[in-house]
Amino acid sequence: MVVRLEEMVNSISQSERLKREAELNALRARINPHFLHNTINSIRMLAILQDSDQIADLLRAFSQLLNSNMKLDQELITIREEIVFLKDYLQLMELRYTEKFSVEWRIQDETRNALIPAMILQPIVENAIFHGAAGINDRVHIVISAEVSADGSQLQLCIADDGIGMDAEKVAKLNEDKYGTDNRNIGIGNVRDRIGFRFGRQYGLSIESQVGQGVKVKLSMPFIGGDKFVEDDGRRG
Question: Which positions are tagged coiled coil (predicted)?
Answer without folding.
Answer: none
